[in-house]
Design brief:
2 domains; Quinone Oxidoreductase, Chain A, domain 1; alpha/beta; 332 residues; homodimer; Rossmann fold
């Protein structure tokens, strides 16, 4: 009798409860693939959207899910050096399809190019909380927007793991972060995490406050995963020749393009996903940058809450509550 | 008794009829200004929008109007070399405010930096039909989008003077133009003017046709002065990592930002106006590029119709009819 393992899949799209623990034969890595014995999973908003059938990738049912796992390689496929076995690695989003390589499970089989080593000082939980947040921020802020000393950077959904990574990255680069959050609940924590300014949109006018903070110039860079009506306020808060990086679609509403504001400022609105970075030559440089700043502790993956593997449905529900500050992690 | 001259101004915003011939004392050029005896005026859509109170610049009433005049300098102000007197020049949009320096009149007083000489082979009518169209296209296609050999370039409002200039510029740079026009009426003329492809949006699906023309790749560059709902079709017709240059706001409707399409393609939407180019160091290079291609006849300003000065109201009405292909010129 061959061994079986638990793999999380969904057989239809929908709420968190569609995630099921399927008992499947232990999968063998194919050519250029590795198998990871999973120790921790970092959850991402993209995976909630994928589960709902609202993501850039359309699920092929039954679909796996999950971009970020940390663990130990326990088998390699054809063409992969066997010295990888026993190494601690984590998986890099944007390098594989969720439907067939999603990492929610006791083991995960992914392409060799999807794995990366990380500093040994980090726990598995931290190891599963690196790549989505720091590479997404790197691609937008450093690769595309080329932030530098003195730049004002507006960061919406600031208490998300990517938001916090952007706050840390702005600090490292000498830029000034303006964190945007809906309610006052997370304001103090964002300041403690290093945000230079925090704007609470339920209580303050975004554009007016940015105007104050930047002495009327506006912010050169905006980093936004929300879209929808907030784009108008963000454009109003952007400097002449500024750039708005849209990297998600969390808003339920349509996104109006502020044409007149954009014309008067020569504004760039650049939609961006991590897939672009991982497909580009800059990818290895980006990974090195992240590892260096993890090693120096300039970047500290913040874990909000951990759930045991058996409670992954509750972990998804918790993500949808928007109560977290930082990463939600599932442990095995 | 001092001499008076006719200057066109509007004392309230509204339809073409608000343009009035005000009999004013002959204006003297101030410091760093020149006075032009106007021979021809090139009309622009911006001036219709300004007259309607719908332009980026808000009119200060009573407001002058008009960006492009060709004529002969007949007086210079303090600090301007008197050798300019007698020279044939035309005025460059984006270098002055319409309210106080608008050039509709028997004479126009503009800053020295607003004038440029042009090849002597051109008539006054052609001289008044250069800068808005070729510099606008240069800034978008060459400065920002860096078009080169083999690039597909979608050009909407293709029969406008800027659209035709873009068709000519794409050809000079070895790019492939896809001209977009609403009805079949102007299709043959656009092909004769050098458009490599013409899409008639009343009869054809824009994205499907671009898909065909580009073998499924989409166009790398889109050059659009319309905005509004067409942005969704244009985004659908754009290549991965393509750029949409929005340089106007002709649509009456709001402009939806196609967030999902943009994310899936890493799309850039860049709003752009000529003001950016004229304020940049590239301005003199751009003027030189235009003059060289005018001299070689690679660029041939196309004049649709001329009106006498007394009929400038009719000329504005004609522009609003959208019947023209190329420039509408008023002669004095």
């Amino acid at each position: 009798m061959s061994k079986t393992v638990k793999i999380v899949r969904f057989h239809k799209t929908g709420p968190a409860e569609v995630l099921e623990f399927d008992e499947l034969p232990l999968p063998e890595p194919g050519a250029s693939e590795v198998r990871i014995s999973v120790k921790a999973l970092g959850l991402n908003r993209a995976e909630v959207m994928f589960r709902n059938g609202q993501y850039l990738e359309t699920p092929v049912l039954p679909a796996k899910n999950g971009y970020e796992a940390a663990g130990v390689i326990d088998a390699v496929g054809e063409g992969v050096d066997s010295s990888w076995v026993g190494k601690t690695v984590s998986t890099v989003p944007g390098t594989f399809k969720l439907s067939n390589h999603g990492v929610y499970g006791e083991v995960a089989v992914v392409p060799l190019k999807a794995i990366a080593e990380y500093p040994a000082s980090l726990s598995y939980e931290e190891g599963a909380s690196i790549w989505m947040q720091y590479l997404t921020a790197y691609g937008a802020l450093i690769w595309l927007a080329k932030i530098s000393k003195g730049d004002f950077v507006i960061i919406t959904a600031a208490s998300s793991s990517v938001g916090i990574a952007a706050i840390e990255m702005a600090k490292v680069e000498g830029a000034i972060s303006i964190a945007v959050t809906r309610t006052a609940a997370k304001k103090n924590q964002l300041l403690k995490l290093g945000a230079d300014h925090v704007i609470v949109t339920d209580e303050e006018d975004l554009a007016a406050r940015v105007n104050e903070i930047t002495s009327g110039k506006g912010a050169r860079v905006v980093f936004d995963p929300i879209g929808g009506p907030i784009l108008e306020s963000l454009a109003a808060a952007t400097a002449y020749h500024g750039i708005v990086l849209e990297y998600g679609a969390l808003a339920a509403e349509a996104t109006p393009y502020p044409l007149f504001t954009a014309l008067s400022k020569g504004l760039t609105v650049r939609a961006y996903t991590l897939f672009e970075l991982t497909a580009d030559a800059v990818f290895s440089k980006a990974k090195q940058y992240v590892c260096e700043h993890l090693a120096s502790r300039a970047f500290r993956p913040l874990i909000d809450k951990t759930f045991p593997f058996a409670e992954i449905v509750a972990a998804h529900r918790y993500m949808e509550s928007n109560a977290q500050v930082g990463k939600i992690v599932v442990t095995l």
